């Protein structure tokens, strides 16, 4: 009897999240939403018309830095599956955006309301997306373990 090089139930070594199906499709949607969030953080000061104050410029720098990292992580996630570490980084960046308007002294001035609102809302969005992404990550690992065990 000939032996096969792969065990039953495995699909050529690919991760379950890269396979077609509901988990993989949801993961791609979350990645796309993360990418769009990162891009929004990069350009938000223009459509929201931040005022020309030191506080608004510093808020814009904060959002630009977070947006660059999130867009990079999501862009890399489009090429290959993000891991738990990248989701934790996005979670921490979301937490930072959520609290930064209240803990950072943007040049000694009151942070413009539009910038505060944008940072709080986008912080919540990034936290939610990273939590969903982590849940999908754990689900795909559990599903992959179940398939390898023959279940």
TrEMBL record:
All residue ranges annotated as the SPW repeat-containing integral membrane domain in the record: 32-130
The portions of this protein that span the membrane are: 29-48, 88-108, 120-138
Q: Where is the composition biased (Polar residues)?
A: 1-10
Highest taxon, organism lineage: Bacteria
Name the Pfam families for this protein. SPW (PF03779)
Q: InterPro entries in the record, alphabetically?
A: SPW (IPR005530)
Sorted keywords for this record are: Membrane, Transmembrane, Transmembrane helix
Please verify whether the record's keywords include Transmembrane. Answer: yes
Region (Disordered) location: 1-20
- What name appears for this protein in its UniProt entry? SPW repeat-containing integral membrane domain-containing protein
| Species, as recorded | Streptomyces macrosporus
């Amino acid at each position: 009897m000939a032996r096969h090089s792969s065990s039953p139930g495995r699909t050529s070594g690919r991760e379950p999240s890269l396979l077609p199906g509901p988990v993989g499709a949801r993961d791609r949607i979350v990645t796309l939403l993360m990418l769009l969030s990162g891009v929004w953080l990069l350009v938000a000061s223009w459509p929201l018309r931040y005022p020309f104050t030191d506080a608004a410029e510093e808020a814009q720098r904060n959002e630009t830095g977070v947006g660059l990292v999130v867009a990079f992580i999501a862009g890399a996630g489009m090429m290959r599956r993000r891991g738990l570490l990248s989701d934790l980084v996005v979670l921490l960046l979301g937490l930072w955006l959520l609290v930064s308007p209240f803990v950072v002294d943007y040049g000694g001035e009151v942070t413009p309301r539009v910038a505060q609102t944008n940072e709080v809302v986008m912080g919540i969005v990034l936290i939610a997306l990273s939590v969903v992404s982590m849940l999908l990550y754990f689900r795909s690992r559990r599903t992959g373990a179940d398939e390898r065990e023959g279940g």
